[in-house]
Design brief:
This protein is an alpha+beta fold and 175 residues long. It has 5 helices and 8 strands, in the order E-H-H-H-E-E-E-E-H-E-H-E-E. A 4-stranded antiparallel beta sheet has the order 1-2-3-5, sandwiched between helices. The protein has a 4-stranded mixed beta sheet with strand order 4-6-8-7, covered by helices on one side. This is GNAT family N-acetyltransferase. It holds the Pfam family Acetyltransf_3.
Length: 175
């Protein structure tokens, strides 16, 4: 185990989020098209925090490894009613290759199951992002679609694979 701990995302975490979003390797297969300036990072951070307002349980967390900030794992709400959440994780390159992504993703999925048992989780992964594909498959996410050529970066068009982790059965938890 990697001695991970999780803190609900807050404005106090701006610096590590700005480091994530300004790193070309971290954002290579994400919706963040180019490295963010501090001002752009602030806007992204404000949008994430705004999406957390009104939720009974936070769904986006700063991840620490042995006390050091290493990334983020989150499930922002998609629409109203807390029935569907996105699912993402991003980590600083110095923490890659240690199983932290898989461990944090599994923690987040379990947390979401406990807090929102009737909610579905939805994730996208670019076809070349082998690490994310392995994590999603290992966690039981089901393939549910392909957007052919849906990801474009530096003149290269790649497919986006969509996945879903269905909601727990009705009556299996309290929401």
């Amino acid at each position: 185990m990697n001695e991970l701990c999780y803190e609900p995302l807050s404005a106090a975490h701006f610096e590590v989020m700005a480091r994530l979003w300004s790193d070309p390797e971290v954002i290579r297969y994400t919706a963040v098209e180019r490295p963010c300036t501090p001002a752009q990072s602030r806007l992204r951070m404000e949008a994430l925090l705004e999406g957390q307002r009104g939720l009974p349980v936070p769904t986006i967390y700063l991840v620490r490894c042995k006390g050091e900030p290493c990334g983020v794992a989150g499930a922002p709400p998609l629409g109203k009613g807390w029935r569907r959440f996105g699912f993402f994780y991003q980590f600083l390159p110095g923490f890659w290759g240690r199983g932290i992504g898989g461990e944090a993703a599994a923690w987040l999925a379990a947390r979401m199951r406990e807090s929102y048992p009737r909610a579905e989780l939805a994730a996208d992964a670019v076809e070349r992002n082998a690490a994310s594909l392995r994590i999603l498959e290992r966690m039981g996410f089901l393939p549910c679609g392909v957007r052919q050529g849906g990801f474009e970066r530096n003149g290269l068009r790649l497919d986006i694979l969509s996945f879903r982790l269905p909601a727990l059965e009705e009556g299996s938890g309290v929401q």
